[in-house]
Amino acid sequence: MRVNLRKLFLIGSFAAILWIIVSYMSTLESPEPVKKFNKVVMIENTLNLLEERVDMQLKESNKLLDRVKQHLKKTEYLAKERDAKDQMDADISAFNPVLPVLVIACDRVSVHRCLENLVRFRPSKKTFPIIISQDCGHNATYHVIKRFVDEDSSITLVRQPDLTDIKLPRTKLKFNGYYKIARHFRFALNHVFKTLNHEAVIIVEDDLDISPDFFEYFLGTYPLLLKDPSIWCISAWNDNGKKDIIDLSRPELLHRTDFFPGLGWLLRQESWEYLEPNWPPAFFDDWLRNPQNTRGRSCIRPEISRTYTFGKVGVSKGLFFDMHLRHMQLNMEYVEFTKMNLSYLIKDVYDPAFKQQAYSASLKTAAEVVSYSGGPDDKARVTYKDAKSFQKAAKTLGLMDDFRSGIPRTAYLGIVNCYIRGRRVYLVPEFDWVKYDPAWG
Ligand code: UD1
Ligand code: MN
Q: DSSP letters of 378-408?
């Protein structure tokens, strides 16, 4: 009887719990179909909203991704630049370079002006011994040079021994001077590289003035010459170096160029070894402007020249001097090139950035460029399609308009850059540039 009561109590409780659960569930469910429909619409709306948000988020993420990509590109560029710099620093600190200065002299007694400046601005006799090579057997000039040699053991003199006339057909007699210059350069460079076995040399002509940072310029850029096999020379000269077409506020700025500028230049022994066997009988500078002779390599040149030529009376006579050379700007500010990061000039780093700058500049006509009076941060691009249109634009801009082996002065990858009325200007080929065309002149 007690057991049965217990059973009954258990069944009763179970039924009561069941009833509570069922009645609770029934309050949860909404029996009306309209309410159900509203809920579906609401869910649909919410889903649509969510989808829109996801879309927006996706767009934002893509934008962010683009920015990350751009940043990575920049970081990659900076890393390339840093690596190049690290390597150059390692190079320059691993040895104490000796960079002799070779002075090419003939019959100008004014060579004293050149020598005085070299002595005045030279920071170290040990790093920069001066070697004067004299051609022409001119006695008065010899005595001027002798004064410097006698006073300073780091200054030496060598004399070009072959003073014979070079036999030339009558039509070429007027070029006699250029034949003698080429013969003298061959002798002098053989003396420096073969007799004295120097690693590199800075070549200066007797009618050149130098800037106060001339030596610092070559010392700072020498590692580039060692590091980058696409560079064969460092020059102190900007062929388009007149004050109206350069940026006077950027004395530290350097460029790559496919046009050999000469007029104060640094050459390695290694390069002389392959140049010397084919050295030309005359016009050696134009010969060095033919890419076939320099293995298609480039030079470094400054925005503002580190030399100035005062030799109005010379082998090439005075017209060119009065038209151009007289107006060239000599840099007077001292730039500490040895403390600067110059790895932006390494080919891998320089080429893509240079092309990007040039081709992204806004398109203008040469006439618009020379009458511009806007802000300083802008940059402009003027295009040319052939030799004639190049020359026309160059004339308007005030640039040199001649070619050697099809290369315009200061050109790099077919592009000439200068600075006019507060902005960088690029004279850019309109066509897909592959190489210079010797037929242009
Ligand atoms: C021009 C170039 C010069 C280049 C030369 C070679 C300019 C401003 N000048 O000479 O850079 O080296 O063409 O083609 O672009 N000399 C001799 N022996 C001679 C005559 C001259 O050694 O018989 C020396 C001079 O001392 C001087 C150099 O050669 O150092 C150039 O002579 P210069 O008379 O100045 O000729 P440029 O017309 O300037
Ligand atoms: Mn000269």
A: -EEEEEE-SHHHHHHHHHHHT----EETTEE
Location of structure tokens 């004639």: 388
Which contiguous run of DSSP H or E holds residue 292? none
Q: What's the pTM value of the predicted model, to 2 decimals?
A: 0.83
* pLDDT (tens digit per residue) in 192-243: 999 999 999 999 999 999 999 999 999 999 999 999 999 999 999 999 999 9
Out of 191, 205, 267, 402, give the residue to mutate to test ligand 1, the one with the largest number of ligand atoms within 8 Å of its CB: 205
Query: What stretches of 108-180 adopt beta strand conformation (E)?
Result: 130-134, 155-159
Pick the range with the lowest mean pLDDT from 122-126, 248-252, 314-318, 432-436. 314-318
Q: Could you count the other beta carbons within 10 Å of the beta carbon of residue 31? A: 7
pLDDT tens sequence across 399-435: 999 999 999 999 999 999 999 999 999 999 999 999 9
Atom of ligand 1 nearest to the CA of 184: 22
Expressed in angstroms and rounded, the spacing between residue 207 Cα and the centre of ligand 2 is: 6
Q: What beta strand segments (E) does 60-199 contain? A: 101-105, 130-134, 155-159
Task: Indicate which residues carry an active-site annotation.
Answer: 285
Instruction: Quote the ligand 2 centre to 311 CA distance (angstroms).
Output: 5
Q: Note the pLDDT of residue 151.
A: 98
| The two structure tokens encoding residue 218 | 């070559």
345, 77 Cβ separation under 8 angstroms: no
Cα–ligand 2 centroid distance for 113 (angstroms) = 14
Counting atoms of ligand 1 from 1, which one is nearest the CA of 103? 30
DSSP3 helix / strand / coil % (the chain, rounded to 5) = 50, 15, 35
- From the alpha carbon of 107, which atom of ligand 1 is closest? 26
Decide if 148 contacts 115 (C-beta within 8 A): yes
Which residue bears the tokens 């009833």? 19
The angle, 0 to 180 degrees and rounded to 10, between the axes of the packed helices 214-227 and 33-94 is: 110
Cα distance between residue 425 and residue 381, in whole Å: 6
> What interhelical angle do 33-94 and 347-360 show, nearest 10?
130
